[in-house]
Amino acid sequence: MANSKLGRSSFLGYPLSKLSLALLFLVGLVVAVTADDLNFPSSNTRKSHHPSKKLNKPVVLLISTDGFRFGYQFKTETPNMDLLISRGTEAKTGLIPVFPTMTFPNHYSIATGLYPAYHGIIMNKFTDPVTGEYFNLNLSPKWWLGEPLWETVMNQGLKAATMFWPGSEVPKGSWTCPKGFCKAPFNASFPLEERVDTILSYFDLPESDIPDFMTLYFDEPDKQAHQYGPDDPRITLAVAKIDKMIGRLIQGLKKRKVFGDVHVILLGDHGMVTNCDKKVIYIDDLADWVKIPADWIQAYFPVLAMNPRWGKDVENPGEKNADLVAKMNEALSSGKVENGEFLQVYLKEKLPERLHYSESTRIPPIIGMVGEGLMFKQNRTNAQECFGNHGYDNMFFSMRTIFIGHGPRFRKGKKVPSFENVQVYNIVAEILGLQPAPNNGSSLFTRSILLPFGETAQVE
Ligand SMILES: [Zn+2]
């Protein structure tokens, strides 16, 4: 729309007497519109036929839609997401979250490229077993380890802006959460439309002031799905609303003639699964094998987190922990504990390596992996109705979310296999030409998902 409008005014300004030249121009115009609307920029023809191009620097907009389970996009019409997918690169079977598949650990893994054991936000809420301090969405920098993208960007002389993102309010390095470029504190009632419009307003700044890196966070469809479960019709409406916000963004970028220039990465933090009363394991059912005081348990499900308090007179607490784990697993596999087969308890250093969930003193010594959609509760008195949750093993397909990349460095209509979200940090760093901080992603991975820098240089 914006291109044809601009094209029309240029055409009207052309001398009518030079008919052949005007016709030539018209042909050029058709090529330009076709290239922009159908063939997303992939060759240097774009430069000569794209008078609307505005940005002369790479810009990345990283968007998270919380709890957007892979497959939600098929619940309803999502024309705007479809547009990004058809003209961009998509993880064909979704983006793999890190374990535990919770909001804060995952958003901060996306931002740092680190597994939770290394970035320190090991759950949404937890008690540090060493210091006894409690983390509850705390903003003190000491909790937030690693180097998030907004810090890398600022440390290397570029500009960042955050429209909500877990951890973005925390001052780190050159990042101070600057007023006007860092919306804080998080406010769930701040309308999604205004979040989009705040991002769009940055594109009205002189180019040198446009942030090179921006985050945009939507706390839906997660919120609704926790309350009603992932299959409720209200989730379908929430998905449609998110797509509408993407549409609002695309239209705003098109109006400013930068849609083709901005790298839009649309992803989620985790998926969602239904919990129901019938899928519960009760601690009290283990009493014949082992007694577990309630104050040893920091979290019940989707991750069982236990920090037994053996007392000062116990000489080898590690041995006692191992003994406790063995007794719990004996009970759970006895066939006498309801749903017992759906809980496996580990010393944290014995957890499957693929979870990367042991190398932190913040992780309690005993971790239980609860089966997909299962709950672990103290006793039978506190049962509830069905609802939705996440946090389970990142191997479960229900925990997967989406990844869509759109912009000059992303191939058009490309599908890539699923990958872990710790790769996203390097992708953004590569697009922005930044030296990445040490992280758990692979620097080679960016080659499988991005066009080589040289090809982009032609486009630019
Ligand atoms: Zn959630």
UniProtKB/TrEMBL annotation:
Give a Gene Ontology cellular component term annotated to this protein: vacuole
What Pfam families does the annotation carry?
Phosphodiest (PF01663)
Per the UniProt entry, the signal peptide is 1-35
Q: Which InterPro entries is this protein grouped with? A: Alkaline_phosphatase_core_sf, Phosphodiest/P_Trfase
Give the record's keywords alphabetically: Signal
Name of the molecule in the record: Uncharacterized protein
Q: What organism is recorded for this protein?
A: Microthlaspi erraticum
